[in-house]
Specification:
By secondary structure, this protein is α+β, with helices and mostly antiparallel strands. Helices cover 53% and strands 15% of the residues. The chain has a four-stranded mixed sheet. A four-stranded antiparallel sheet has the order 2-3-7-6, with helices on one face. The structure holds flavin-adenine dinucleotide.
Length: 397
């Protein structure tokens, strides 16, 4: 097992440019986005122009070709500044674009992946329904054949980018008797397709820059060219997407933890109580040290699993069962630990701020609200533990 690696010069350069971009373009608007609960269309457009919506996608499909490692660098650096921007990029890249890269035909890659990676189209991913969240294989949206075409009917819930996306990857049941593997198909559904519309957009505790939309499908007729990966392959495509997403979520948590540490460190060195900066007190120092330890540990976990995904390549037919299982296990570990360590770090950083940490509009208060979702979406942390435990029992190790 190799765990030492160097970032390539291109990946190192990406970190520098994204860091500078995030400070210059995103940091000044974060508070306003949170306050007004609005999608950051201007900064998203600038990020699309920079190629940030195609970082792990090969250059032949319009991306930057910097792999999952490059993608995690992007998520980490954006995560330092604003969780909403990461969520918008991640819903598009890990959940929308990666499945097309893995399972799409040449024609689908040309039609959907290339413009998405070039930042000309925004993607979303739609698995969750009112009656099926963790048990996503029990989804009810139906796909009924009509000649060569398919007719989709159902309601999807909580779709990130659902309001703004040009194309949504919609998982629908083609045959409930077959269960998730074989019975669920993924369709690339363009906005504007008759019968496909955005319903309610949720008000949320955090991630105020993202839309979280209900999508309604009423007799939506789509052609055979919209089927991704073949009939019955939708669940596998969705789970593969989530493996990518969970690692990038860990990277975003890593960025969020570093920002929280920075805030806490700076505050503690400037806040004097009982005649000393509070950073002089061991109770405060131990909190800072605990955050730093988790940052160090998470950095290894994130980039180790990203490197493993890069080494596997993007042709699922070439993946061994062992590699596939390892990828899923690693992604679950990174997502679960990353989100919990980030929640803990931000909570402690808030505590270090005393009363100020509870005041609306401070960066640490916003970070506290934004971070909570990471323990829930892309599979709750209970589900990550189910994934890890099942794998452990199957391997008998
Ligand atoms: C802001 C936001 C953005 C989202 N973005 C998207 C998106 O872009 N696309 C998309 O498809 N979905 C998205 N989701 C949905 C999200 O992935 C689900 O909310 C999540 O998977 C949990 O599903 P649920 O809400 O139905 O909870 P439930 O599945 O009903 O779970 C409720 C509780 O029961 C626990 N539980 C359930 N089953 C088990 C079990 N077997 N063992 C132990 N505990 C269990 C859960 O962990 C949880 O604590 C988003 C959600 C939010 C809030």
């Amino acid at each position: 097992m190799t765990i030492e690696f160097e970032f390539t010069p291109e990946q190192a350069a990406l970190r520098e440019t994204v860091r500078a971009f995030a400070q210059k373009e995103i940091a000044p608007v974060v508070a306003e986005i949170d306050e007004t609960e609005s999608f950051p269309a201007a900064t998203v457009a600038r990020m699309q122009a920079e190629g940030y919506f195609g970082v792990p996608i090969p250059e032949e499909y319009g991306g930057l070709g910097l792999g999952k490692i490059g993608y995690c660098i992007l998520a980490e650096e954006l995560g330092r500044v604003d969780a909403s921007h990461v969520a918008i990029v991640a819903a598009h890249t890990s959940l929308g674009a990666a499945p097309i890269l893995y399972y799409g035909t040449d024609e689908q890659k040309r039609r959907w992946l290339t413009p998405a990676s070039q930042g000309k189209k925004l993607l979303a991913f739609s698995l969750t329904e009112p009656g099926s969240g963790s048990d996503s294989g029990a989804l009810k949206t139906s796909a009924v054949p009509k000649g060569d075409s398919w007719v989709l009917n159902g309601t999807k819930l909580y779709v990130t980018n659902g309001k703004e996306a040009d194309t949504v990857l919609v998982m629908a049941a083609n045959d409930v008797k077959k269960g998730p593997h074989g019975g669920i198909t993924a369709f690339l559904v363009d906005k504007g397709t008759p019968g496909f519309r955005v319903g309610r957009c949720e008000k949320k505790m955090g991630l105020h820059g993202t839309s979280t939309a209900e999508l309604i499908l009423e007799n939506v007729e789509v052609g055979p060219e919209t089927v991704l990966g073949g009939i019955g392959m939708g669940f596998r495509a969705a789970m593969t997407a989530l493996d990518v997403g969970r690692v990038s979520l860990g990277a975003a948590s890593l960025g969020g933890m570093q920002a929280a540490l920075q805030e806490a460190l700076s505050f503690s060195q400037n806040r004097t109580q009982f005649g000393l900066p509070i950073s002089e007190y061991e109770a405060i120092q131990f909190k800072l040290a605990d955050i730093e330890m988790h940052i160090e540990a998470l950095r290894y976990l994130v980039y180790h699993s990203a490197a493993h995904q890069d080494a596997m390549g993007h042709d699922p037919t070439k993946w061994s069962r062992g590699d596939r299982e390892k990828k899923t296990r690693e992604a679950a570990v990174v997502k679960c630990l990353g989100s919990e360590w980030a929640a803990e770090a931000i909570d402690e950083a808030l505590q270090i701020h005393g009363g100020l940490g509870y005041i609306r509009g401070t960066p640490i208060e916003r970070a506290y609200r934004d971070a909570r979702i990471s323990e829930i979406f892309e599979g709750t942390n209970e589900i990550q533990r189910v994934v890890i435990a099942r794998d452990l029992i199957a391997r008998g190790a």
